[in-house]
Amino acid sequence: MPAVTKLSYLGFNVSDFSQWHTILFEILGLEARQDSPQGQIQLRMDSHHHRFTFFESDTNSTAFVGWEVDSIDQFHALYQHLQQLGIGVELASPQDKEARQVLELMKFRGPDNVAMEVCFAPFHDNQPYEPSCTRFGQYVTDDQGLGHILYCHSDMEAALTFYRDALGMRISDYIHWDEARATFLHCNPRHHSLAICNPCFGTGAGELNHFMLQADNIDDVGQAYDRVAAMDVPLVLTLGKHTNDQMTSFYMVTPSGFAIEYGYGGAEIHDDEAWEIALYNAPKVWGHNLVE
């Protein structure tokens, strides 16, 4: 069955990019491309031309979620698969492919009308990624993609069917706690590239709850946490460790209302046959205290 293999990139509409400066550059050390198109800011975190696009807008919203496949044959097979499922998939224009800096691109709508895309062969820059603040290491990307996202959906059963049957994702595990019922899915060794949840904790149907970036060493996370405290960056959750993917992380509030998780040490799934799907009754081993 055709399947996506990575979370490749994200796009956001923002009303005031200056409000993002501290989190993106002084905490996370992302690199802004100086050749970003007018009205946009493209950001790097590794060898890719860019992983994030921020569009000047009157509103704050997610513009698109970009997935990736590993071959041109997979790209065409997935396009035909989505057509057969009756999903309104379209091949992108040359202008859109140029904007995303990818060789091939398709567009469609996911559950709750979330704008989604699938690309093949994102361009890699011949210049190395240069962090905008001092960091020890790099982000964990490559065959694990950008990181992960968590979306809330109005119909969890329908959403799970879409992500499994249309995009070929596999279930990692579940966490049920308080009012939340979350399912975690993977498409590569990263424990999850996608988590889906019922609307809860202030996140509505079709809205992004958070995206996660993973450092390759714990010192990057610890130093970023110190900078968060020094710069009074608001937190959603304090430093803590998750039950299911074992990641040590913290969550920051963004100007758009969703959160950014920054962590280290996430579990990996290399053998689906050997992996045991579990149900957890709490999302944390320690920490991750809610900041009121």
Q: Summary?
A:
Keywords: Aromatic hydrocarbons catabolism, Dioxygenase, Iron, Metal-binding, Oxidoreductase. It contains 5 helices and 18 strands.
Main attributes?
oxidoreductase; single chain; alpha+beta; 2,3-Dihydroxybiphenyl 1,2-Dioxygenase, domain 1; Biphenyl-2,3-diol 1,2-dioxygenase; 18% helix; 10-stranded mixed β-sheet; 2 domains; globular; 18 strands; Glyas_Bleomycin-R_OHBP_Dase
CATH class wording of the largest domain: Alpha Beta
Quantity of strands, as a count: 18
**Largest sheet: spatial strand order:** 17-10-11-12-9-13-16-15-14-18
- Count of domains: 2
The level of helicity is 10-25%
Q: How does CATH name the architecture of the largest domain?
A: Roll
Shape: globular
**Rg, Å, rounded:** 18 Å
* Overall average residue pLDDT: 97
Please tally the helical runs, counting DSSP H or I stretches of 4 or more residues. 5
Question: Can you write the helix and strand succession as a string?
Answer: EHEEEEHEHEEEHEEEEHEEEEE
Low-confidence stretches: none
CATH superfamily of the largest domain: 2,3-Dihydroxybiphenyl 1,2-Dioxygenase, domain 1
User: What portion of residues belong to β-strands?
Assistant: 35-45%
Question: What is the terminal separation in angstroms?
Answer: 45 Å
- Give me the CATH fold name of the largest domain: 2,3-Dihydroxybiphenyl 1,2-Dioxygenase, domain 1
